[in-house]
C-alpha cells in the first residue's frame, strides 16, 4: 500500500475511534462475494484488511453468508474454506436469508457493536451509508479500498463535537450556584500615601551661617579678660637731670 493512501486510511480510522468509540481488534463482517473476490485475486484477506484499517482485525461471517457460498456449488469450495476460518457471528435467523439482508440486520440501525463491513454488494453499501459510523471496505481491481465516511457520519461527528463543548443538564446542576458578592461600606478615603509629596528640608543659607559665625566670635571676645598694661620704670639718668 502506498504511503499516501495508508496515511489517509489511518486518519479515517482515528475519526471512527475518537468520535464513535471503535477499538482494536476491529470486528469485520465479511460477505460471500468478498470471500470469492479474495480467492480470485489470490490475496490474504485478513492481512489485507489489517493493512487497510491500520490495526488488528477480527474477521467474522454469518451462517447466512456461508449458506450463499454452499448454494453456488463445489466450484466455490475454496471460498467456503476461507469463510470457515473466520469467527462465526450469530445472526439468529432460523432459515437462511440473503446475505445483504442478514448483514444489514446484524449491523442494525445504529451499529452499536461497531462493525466494519467488507462487502462487494453495491445495494448493501448504499444501505449502510445511511447508517451512522459504518466503515465500508470493498475491492476494486484487486485493490482493497476503505470508503470515505458518509455524509450522515460526518454530520453526526460534527454534532457530537458541538455537544461536547456545552455542559449537560447533570453537569449544570452539579455546578455551584453563584453567590452575591459582599458589598463593602463606603467611607471617606484618605490621600494615597504614594501620591503625597514629602516636604523638602532646605539646607541652611550661607548668610545665616555667616551671621552665626560672627556671633560666636563676639561672644568669645567678651568672655576673654583684658590684659593689664605695665608701666615702664624710670631710669636714673632721667632723674639726675
Automatic annotation (TrEMBL):
Alphabetical UniProt keywords: Nucleus, Ribosome biogenesis, rRNA processing
Any Gene Ontology biological process: rRNA processing
InterPro entries the record matches: Fcf1/UTP23, PIN-like_dom_sf, UTP23_sensor
GO cellular component: small-subunit processome
Biased composition (Basic and acidic residues): 161-172
All residue ranges annotated as the UTP23 sensor motif region domain in the record: 183-200
Predominant localisation class: nucleus
Compartments where found: Nucleus, Nucleolus
Highest taxon in the source lineage: Eukaryota
Keyword Cell membrane: no
Residue ranges of the region described as Disordered: 161-241
Family that this chain belongs to: Belongs to the UTP23/FCF1 family. UTP23 subfamily.
Free-text function comment from the UniProt entry: Involved in rRNA-processing and ribosome biogenesis.
Name of this protein: U three protein 23
Species in which this protein is naturally found: Mycena indigotica
